[in-house]
Amino acid sequence: MNFCAAPCLTLSPMADSCPFEAIRLSFTHNVRIALGPAVFSPGGSISISSPHAEIWLQNKQVLIRDQNTTHGTYVNGIRIVQQTLLQNGDTLTLGVPITRSSGVPNNVTNAQLKPIKAMVTIVGV
Length: 125
Hints:
By secondary structure, this protein is mostly beta strands. Helix content is 0%, strand content 36%. The chain contains no helices and ten strands. The chain has strands spanning 8-13, 23-26, 33-35, 53-58, 61-66, 73-75, 78-79, 84-86, 91-94, 116-123. The chain is elongated and about 45 Å long.
């Protein structure tokens, strides 16, 4: 059961994502939620910034905006450049795959080279 007292959004990891546990974000009035490395655990994707994107509820719609990151924020595979509507069933990607090179520290795992890729579930909006 996916019950939320307030409108909420769940981000569930997809198979080709840097691993993280599903997260549920509850929206309250006029609060913007920063999405960055600390939100996704265990996470550890090296292609996301802090903060990477922000998400909020406005007029019963869930919106997201990239925070001018190097590797970008994508909704359904399209890089967003302004605030963008998120809908139930969308695919949200933070960052891009990073190619292992001499510049990548040896302690970075192959999983950490993947972006955060999540299925969006919206309830109560």
